[in-house]
Each structure stands twice: as structure tokens, then as C-alpha cells.
Amino acid sequence: MSNEHDYKELEAHARKARWLAISTVAGSGAGHVGGPFSAMDILVALYFKVMNIKPEEPGWPDRDRFILSKGHSSIGLYSVMALRGFLPVEELKTFDKGNSRLQGHPDVTKLPGLDTSTGSLGQGLSVGLGFALGARMRGQKFHTFVMLGDGELQEGMAWEALHIAPRYKLGNLTAILDWNGLQQFGWVLAVNEQHRGDRRDPWSGVDLRGVFEKLGWRCIEINGHDFSQVVPALESVKASGDSDQPSMIIAHTTKGKGVHFTEGKHEWHSKVATKEELRIIAKELGIEEAVA
Amino acid sequence: MKALRDVFGDTLVSLGWSNPNVVVLDADLANSTKADKFAMAYPERFLQMGIAEQNFVGVAVGLASLGFVPWLSTFTVFFTHRAIDPIRMLVAQTHANVKIGAAYSGLLTGLTGKTHQDVQDIAIMRAMPEMTVLAPADAIEGEAMIRWATDFQGPVYLRLARDASPNLFDEKYSFALGKTYLLREGADVLIISTGPQSGRCLKAAELLQGEGISAGVLHVPSIKPVNKEEIVSAAEKAKLVVTVEEHTIYAGLGGLVAEILSEASPRKVVRFGIEDRWGESAPNDYLLDLFQVSPPRLVERIKKLVR
């Protein structure tokens, strides 16, 4: 179904969306960058390629559902939704400004196209479980995708949903783990580590895939920045919506991915780019109008 | 006289027949909460969610967005203490059409002790924007509220006692959101209460009559929203206002009444209930005496106030 040409288009959308996100955060004076950038390629693949959605009819009952459980990456989601036509790109300027549909964390009561509110971590998969279970009870065919952060998986509530979804055999539910390996402050320094940003992945040494599989999830491991892996993985789980196993896409990602000086840097978890940095970023992302 | 948990189970079975969108989610206590009656009647709409109360709140939100009317069922304490964050963010903040059937509320939880007694739930839930908070006094009001909440669009918190309490109402009762019910008129003191405690207050008022004290009883089943004017108007007719609740005296019904009267009609409000302490395992009568909200203790305390 997919080909190289599609991926080039998706890559272009992802560059544009990264620019919108980081320049919006710069305009608002606060916001997250690292998490939105690690999630961005998957968000673009979902909204431009995989999900069955109608931007002109955001409440369409048969739409595929998406929940950004790591809600602090909201600006990444808003940027992709703007490019996809759910809101005017211009509206991104209102982010966090007061009286805006674009709240710091996604608010389902404000922005049509969102499927629930998130922000307090570890809660999104439970709502996704409700969508998937309800779809089965109603005989609806839509698919539910929930993006989880790796840091967020430290929340106990996430594990409640992780063990209950397989019991209900919800093949129409997919969790996507954005495993970028960094969280806000992190754990005690290990030997030979100098800075917080050098810290080990909080889940390093843990066989998360093994844990998920033992709980009953069908797991696919991918590079979350390579569309030739992201798109087929998402299409494959969607195609198995009638199966009796929920899917877990374990996406290995890089926090801050897309700009050389934000990649893998914990300090870009939430940071505002300077004017000079924005110039470099625009050039690197190939955003001509911004460079000019 | 019928236990509120049986009213819960039986009314859900009746609603399940008339409304195919009604579903019940259990956190492994259905035989205690009597949600098991629904499980027997409609196994395909009874969703066992295991001992995992945070998750089942989120699942209910997902189901509600597809048009189901999910009733959550577990003990009160697990809603208002363990699952309060998903109730806050996923239910209240999104105005989700989720119904919270809070069983075993208050002190009288069947010999379970302070770990399972929730004496703070009114305070917590009435501070929750967009939440409707209801506390029925008897089986008739309980059934009316469950039916009303199922038809209402939005989150509802229903505070259900475990055991049976005497019927205060008959089949002519109709529930109206916010309305208060004057169960008895009296000139010397107005006792304001909620839930099954209203019945115990009514009994105390009858005993007070024998002592030459004329006590009125105002039952407040809608904690939120509540008709403030009715509370003000009733209070202004009495020489003294006393609130009684099977709940902490901080920020519960007593707090609600004091807030209303201090602004609209300042006067002394004496709050009876649980002071700054936890409960313990004991039979119901023992606990009601211990916290001085049984009818005989109320008579003693009110006599002291009035004389």
C-alpha cells in the first residue's frame, strides 16, 4: 500500500510539524519540545496515512480514535492536526495564551477532533480500552490508538489497563510506546554519569517487550522515526482489528529528534528556542519562508 | 425498608431492561454492592474490571463517549481516595456521562473499620466542579435518584449507605435536583441532615418533642447543586440551626450550610458529625453512639444547646 513517494511526503509533513511545534513554543514562551519531537513521525503517520478520519467532520462516529496519553506533548499533536486541517495553522499562535482551544494539555471540551482529555499521566490507555470495548459491544469497526510515554509507564494506572485489555481480547486496540529513554528529572546518577541528560533509560535492563507479551499483547518493535517501519506497523495492527489480541508497537525513538542540537538532550524536555536557534532549526528543517 | 445496596442492584436491573445503553462496571465487589443482580440479568453488559479502580473510571469514560450509560460500582473509599485523579481529569473535567455508584458510604460499612470507612467523600466531591452529588435517605429516594441519574447527561456521584434505613418517603415522592425536603416543622431548632442520617434526626426530633423541644428536620439529598434559598428560608424560621452528618464536620454538609448561611443570613450553625479523627470496626449502633449522632445522643446534645 505504501511506497517511497508517500514516505517523502510524510517526512515533509513531519519537518513542517516540528517547525510549527518549536516555533509555537517559542512564541508562547513555554512548552515541551523533546516529547513532541520523539512522537512526531508516528503522529504524522497516523493522521496523514493510517487513521480513518474526517477533519471536516471531527465527531464522525466511525472515525478511528487517537489518545495522546502523554498529554504534555500536546503541541506536537496540535501541529499535526493543524496541518491535517482540524484547525487553522494560524491558530497555533494561541497555544497557552488564554481563551484558546489549544490548552497546555489536550482538552476534549475545547478542540473538536480530540477524543479525550489527557495530562495527568498514565490514564489514556484506560479510556482507549473503553473505546475498544464499546466498539466491540456496538459492532463498530473503528480502531483505537493510544500513544504512551516510557516515563508515563511508571504510573500504576497504566498497568491496570495493560493487564485488563488482553482479558477482553481487544484486537481493535493498539498502544504505541514512544520509548525515547528520557524523563524530566530522572533517577540517581549511575557510575560514570556526569549529568542528568546522560542518564540511563529508566526502563533499561527491563524486558518490557517480554512483560507486554506475557500479559497478552502482540508486540511489534520499530524505529519510531523510520516511516518505512512506522507505517507498515500501524497498518498491520489496524488490519488485525478483528483478532483477539491487543497490539503494542514498541517504538524506539529519540527525544528531541529532528534537530541536531535538541536530539537526546533532556534539557529540551521543555525549553524555549532563541531567535538564533530558530534560524538554525528552520534551515535544518528546510522551512524556507521562516529562513527568509 | 430495604437496604440501599439492594435498591441499587434491583433498580439497575430494571433500568437495564428499559435502557439498552446501561452498562455496569465492577471492581470485584459485585456481591457486596449488589451489582451482581445486574450481572445475573445482563451478563453481556456487566463488565468485570478487576481490583483496579483507576482504570475502570477511564474505561467508563470511553464507553460513555460511545453513548453507553456506565454505572461504576465499588466502595465509596476507592472512588474518592484511590481513583480521584481519573474522576477529576477524565470524568469531571470532560463532563463525561459517567455515574458513580458509591457503595458503603459513611461510617456504617459492616465491621470493616477505618480503612474502608469514607467520612470525607462529601467534602471531596462537592469541591469537584461539574459533579452532581446526591445522598438518598431511604429506598424510595435511592431508586428515584438512580433513575434520575441514568437519564441525566453528565457525571453523577451517588452516595449509597450499605444498610437498610426506615422509609421517610412513600411512592408519591418525586426527586427534583437541588430540592430540599422539610420532614418536620419545629420552632426551637432546625436539624439539617442528609442521607440515612436524616431518618435518625427525625427520630431524635420525635424524642425531643417529649422533652418539650420543638425540632424541625430539613433533609438535603442534593448536596450539589442545592437550593440555597430553601436552606436560608428554613433556617430563618428557627432559633438555632444544627447540622448532623455521618461524615467529617469539615467541608461536608455542615460546611455547606455554614457557607450558605454566613453569606445570606448570618447566624450560629452548630455542626454535629465526625471531628478530626478516624473511625473503627464496630457495630452500627456502637459507632453512631461513639460519634454522638445516634437519636439518643442527638437528643442529649440538642437539649444542652437549647437550654
List the helices and strands and how they pair.
The complex is a heterodimer of chains A (292) and B (307).
Chain A: H1 4-28, H2 34-50, E1 65-68, H3 74-84, H4 124-138, E2 144-149, H5 156-164, E3 173-179, H6 208-215, E4 218-223, H7 227-239, E5 247-252, H8 275-285, H9 288-291
Parallel strand pairs in A: 1-2, 2-3, 3-5, 4-5
Helix pairs in contact in A: 1-2, 1-3, 1-8, 2-3, 2-7, 4-5
Chain B: H1 4-18, E1 22-26, H2 30-33, H3 36-41, E2 46-48, H4 53-65, E3 69-75, H5 76-82, H6 84-92, E4 99-103, H7 121-126, E5 132-134, H8 139-151, E6 156-159, E7 181-184, E8 189-193, H9 197-210, E9 215-219, E10 222-224, H10 228-236, E11 241-248, H11 253-264, E12 269-274, H12 284-290, H13 295-306
Parallel strand pairs in B: 1-2, 1-3, 3-4, 4-6, 5-6, 8-9, 8-11, 11-12
Antiparallel strand pairs in B: 5-10, 7-9
Helix pairs in contact in B: 1-8, 4-6, 9-13, 10-11
Give an overview in words.
The complex is a heterodimer of chains A (292) and B (307). Helix content of chain A is 39%, strand content 10%. By secondary structure, chain A is of the alpha/beta class. Chain A has one domain: Thiamin diphosphate (ThDP)-binding fold, Pyr/PP domains (Rossmann fold), CATH 3.40.50.970. Chain A has a 5-stranded parallel beta sheet with strand order 1-2-3-5-4, with helices on both faces. In chain A, helix 7 links the parallel strand 4 and strand 5 (247-252). The radius of gyration of chain A is 18 Å and the shape is globular. The mean pLDDT of chain A is 93. Chain B has helices at residues 4-18, 30-33, 36-41, 53-65, 76-82, 84-92, 121-126, 139-151, 197-210, 228-236, 253-264, 284-290, 295-306; strands spanning 22-26, 46-48, 69-75, 99-103, 132-134, 156-159, 181-184, 189-193, 215-219, 222-224, 241-248, 269-274. In chain B, 41% of the residues lie in helices and 19% in strands. The mean pLDDT of chain B is 97. By secondary structure, chain B is of the alpha/beta class. Classes of the chains: A alpha/beta (292), B alpha/beta (307). Chains A and B meet through helix 4 and helix 5 of A and helix 4 and helix 6 of B.
